[in-house]
């Protein structure tokens, strides 16, 4: 039994080691694997999925407004308001994917890009990461959405208002939530 | 072609409608489906996975310190520092799962629970949500970890230090990141 309130320390144990990877499903956007493992308390196999890493962009204009896009999402069965972004293509660098998605979805190009780190959305189920960026020095260009994005709309709101949309539960996509909160925290005078 | 810089409006279009759900895989922790859809620009089918909804808890003591746990994660192949939490069991309310996970992993019980909302970690791949809570009025109790958590360690750090662990990329799990940033934002005097 451990007593909380005191910091515990432990020697670094061995991680589970991969013995065999069984491919259960290879889809277009999702792959599913069973990894046979060895190591302390290892399960018979570990189920996990592979999906593309993602990017989300806080595109902040000179007036302190951020670009939000709204689109329909099949799984939650509703429209969702979120930051521009999407899946990284095979071999594509995260920063290039971020610039591509921002331009395709909103038309905006940015002169300056600052990484805001990356998150693990569901690290027990997938190794996928979402990479976050702050983009400034915006200039307008043309939009190039794909067929599934035909109902996407774009709006600009002050950063403080975007944070309120997070706090009130309107913006819920993990990458968008994190990037907006990080951007707001580093610019507390933005509201 | 759309010109950015102006807010767009669109009438609410029909969402894709489910015609048939094919079960591709039913595992212990992951289920994978192909949903056959109808509607504008619908794909032949939509691949998605079902995993349990999750919970994460910011357990804040009277001195403004939060409880962090560190454990090994198989997929990122490293130890990760994160908030107490885990998967919601079948039929379990999120708030009860949060209290259960906090107690099991850290021993702490909380007198007061405040919801911090919920996020969609990967809304294009799964409908799963992670529910976030702020717990205060802490009292110590015994720890009950399962076999896979035998290398888990617990520590307490000031909330402002936990936020720095987010900003520096040490804490990357989406629910932990979001809950810590939300808690810090509503208690800006905490540092």
| Uncertain ranges of chain A | 1-7
What percent strand of chain A?
A: 35-45%
Largest inter-chain contact set: A-B, 86 and 86 residues
Assembly level: homodimer
Q: Given the helix and strand composition of chain A, which structural class is it? A: alpha+beta
Shape of chain A: elongated
CATH topology of the largest domain in chain A: Nucleoside Triphosphate Pyrophosphohydrolase
Fourth-tier CATH superfamily name of the largest domain in chain A: Nucleoside Triphosphate Pyrophosphohydrolase
What does this structure look like?
Two copies of one chain form a homodimer. Chain A folds into two domains: 17-50, no CATH class; 54-190, Nucleoside Triphosphate Pyrophosphohydrolase, CATH 3.90.79.10. Chain A is built from three helices and ten strands; from the N terminus they run E-E-E-E-E-E-E-H-E-E-E-H-H. A four-stranded mixed beta sheet of chain A has the order 7-4-9-8, with helices on both faces. A three-stranded antiparallel beta sheet of chain A has the order 1-2-3, with no helix packed on it. In chain A, strand 1 (17-26) and strand 2 (31-38) form a beta hairpin. Chain A is elongated, with a radius of gyration of 20 Å. With 191 residues, the first copy, chain A, is of the alpha+beta class. In chain A, 18% of the residues lie in helices and 38% in strands. Chains A and B meet through strand 2, strand 3, strand 5, strand 6 and strand 8 of A and strand 2, strand 3, strand 5, strand 6 and strand 8 of B.
